Amino acid sequence: MSVAVSEPLSVEEKIEPIRPQRRETYYQLVWRRFRRSKPAIVGGLMVAMLLLLAIFADFFAPYPLTQTNARNAFIPPTKIHFIDSEGNFHLRPFVYEQVVEVDMRTFAPIWTENTDQRYPIQFFVKGWEYKLFGFIPMDRHLFGVEGTDIFLLGTDKLGADLWSKSCEAGRISLTMSIFGTFISVIIGAAVGVISGYYGGWFDTIVQRFVEFITAFPTLALWLALAAIVPRTWDSFRIFIIMAFIFALLSWTTLAREVRGKVLSLRETDFVMAAKEMGASDKRIMFLHVLPNTFSHIIVILTLTIPGIILAEAFLSFLGIGIQRPLISWGLLMQDAQNLRTLGETPWIMAPAAFIILAVLGFNLLGDGLRDAADPYSTT
After folding, report:
1. 303-361 confidence digits (pLDDT tens)
2. 85-90 LR contacts (CB < 8 Å, sep 24+)
3. Domains of the chain with CATH codes
């Protein structure tokens, strides 16, 4: 009986082939870690949604952004139904006409729905004309109703649709916050890089100045600076001045963050090599050192924007911020200063929901970027 004997493996067969591993870049590691953070993704979606509503406000608005009608003042939000008064389900959402009656004892308006007729909500309807991005003529809108009015968030004292005005107000509130933040980033990054790179007595003087600016009560100084802006100025100049006022006190945090990062980078090998090759201080600071602080800058940028949004809303709510014909979320809530009006028409606080979404979205996004900016940490 013969037994089959297997041949011994060769040296090449014994050695397991080593598969080359694809090395990820720093930005790929940051993106992979950012995707794992669900709160950061939610925050990014919230910010993207608000930006879309602001950019395409004309498309999302069922009525012209400048339309007012005193007869429609303080109409409550329109209820959207899928089930009619008889209990039948309808796949297409619909609304009922709102009618008002006056309580003869308190003279307060009482709004009810006339359930005799349904008004289906139409999508991608043809309506009033507008120019997309200022030059593309269009007349399509996301939704509309024929035969009655639809006010998703109700109306204000002028009879303007709060949903349409809130979408439009996002243009000013978000643009001002982003514009002011970029000014803050430019100032803070420049001061931080120069201070950290040179160090010594120069760094000491700069940091004492930063502490001096930080010591001012932010809210009181904002109020004082906003109050001295002439009311006779045109809207564009007021917009620019307000953005600079918000940036004036928000650059110090970034300056200290960048300065600390630069202090750890100025003695590294690549900086020393650049000096030995004869590179100027300006080139080293802004072409070699500054790009290595971009992760910190992006994080501070996303965390500064909500602070400016809140500051602008507060000042505009008090009447010393954005002025008409410009419109912002804070300006839309000026009617809420009257407690009686707020008690009878609580829906005029609807623009506050946009502020909450913006602040929460940017904070979640900033927290996610802060964690993802250090992809090599184990936490």
Report:
1. 888 888 888 888 888 777 777 778 889 888 887 777 777 778 888 888 889 999 999 99
2. 85/115, 90/118, 90/120
3. 78-150 (no CATH), 165-372 (1.10.3720.10)
